[in-house]
């Protein structure tokens, strides 16, 4: 893409300046997500769904945003999520005023219509707020046509989307820069904006009070009480994140964003606006550990549908509507600093054996809660057959690398088969148990060293944090001598300053090749607890859950030296593992098997 000078030359004049990732917050309603910067600008939103083109793409160096911000540039900012929701309150303190802006994507959500709610309120003094609405559909390639104000409602056509906005009747539309306006509010006064984007003509009422009431009620019903868990507020927030990322189809996106770099100028930036079968299973297992909540049913339903549809050809990832993930392509943007923009994900074409193992574990967890549907029962049989025919094949593994005989993948399917054997009866149970023994015997032969430590892969003796997940799930069992030996070796070789890395990059020190993987830190906590060290597990849990931004959101990686987030956000499987740790490490919870 050229050097950094070339990139800066292609930054649009109207783009919002970037912030470090820890400063952003995310709104989500299950069907799409929006990213909010500290100044109150919505800088990322795809419509109508997660994998649709962006209408606001300033986050990644494109055009388009929706701003509400103090006119007084001399101010500081803060903010918080309302408990158990993804309703975000931005807070600004100026020399003369304290202002809050409450933001949410309205719920219950629809796949073809979104409503973005923004409510400004002055708590002290008087304030002037500036409104900027500059929609740029189609990642900026489309145009907004025929903007007009009638009956205090702005309407426009936006390249296949219909736009309506209430609360800005005093604003003016400027060709090339969108809607611009200003509000003056005194103490106790408030002002509402409601932006609707829909795929067709909408006649629904845009009543802010009604929309806020329905949204608040939807969040109250969606997120369970977590007061009995370790770190109850963080656990509840994690559940809210998972709910916000989960579509009505049951599919849960891995993150709300694309192209946020995991390491500057290395090409490691990916599109995570899709549902990974493995990640979906992790989330379902975390929820199942807490109870038979709706997100468990969502995970089981989506996973079963994909297994029944594709069988042995199960893809690692899908669009949330079950459709295919498109091939990767570049966007004509400079990208978030240190990255470059791409949409689609080539990992969806890989063979990942462990996805079958995690799906079996999910189905078994559902069965224990009596939530295994007839379709899921059929999916169990299909999954077992797929494992039977494919477990000897090299695969891309958890980290989606080159095809090899990864140890973690084999142990994952062993664990899944054993869990299923515990919840079914008769010949199916015998089949699963026998297949598990066969896979485990061959894995031990090829991947277990003579000193009792598991290799990373059949041809790689190195340390591998991915092995912690099957260890945490009981494969091998806690009393197998290889389990503590392997866990200890991973800690000795891949831990630094209380954080854990995935594996060793030859010739590059830990922390320089990539950030600490927060998923690995939480799985280390689970594995440590499973092996009987609750105190050590709590140390890992507390250290890892500190690696978030002020919004409480986690990315995939954490730059320990700079204390910065790295990669797309919010990373679903990190929040899922935080939730599971909070369940397993609570005083009321038995240790994971």
What does the model show?
This protein has 593 residues and is an alpha+beta fold. It is built from 14 helices and 25 strands. The chain has helices at 4-9, 208-222, 232-244, 277-290, 294-310, 353-368, 374-390, 407-423, 426-447, 468-473, 482-494, 518-530, 534-545, 572-584; strands spanning 25-28, 33-36, 41-46, 54-56, 65-70, 75-81, 88-94, 98-105, 113-124, 126-134, 144-150, 153-158, 161-166, 172-174, 178-186, 190-198, 275-276, 317-318, 329-330, 342-343, 495-496, 499-500, 516-517, 557-559, 564-566. β11 (144-150) and β12 (153-158) form a beta hairpin. The longest helix has 22 residues, at 426-447. The relative contact order is 0.10. The model is unreliable at 1-11 (pLDDT under 50).
Low-confidence stretches: 1-11
Q: Rough shape? A: globular
Number of strands: 25
Instruction: Give the integer mean of the pLDDT values.
Output: 94
Q: What distance separates the N and C termini? A: 49 Å
Strand content: 15-25%
Rg, alpha carbons:
24 Å
Number of helices: 14
Describe the main β-sheet briefly: 8 strands, antiparallel
The helical percent reads 25-40%
Structural class: alpha+beta
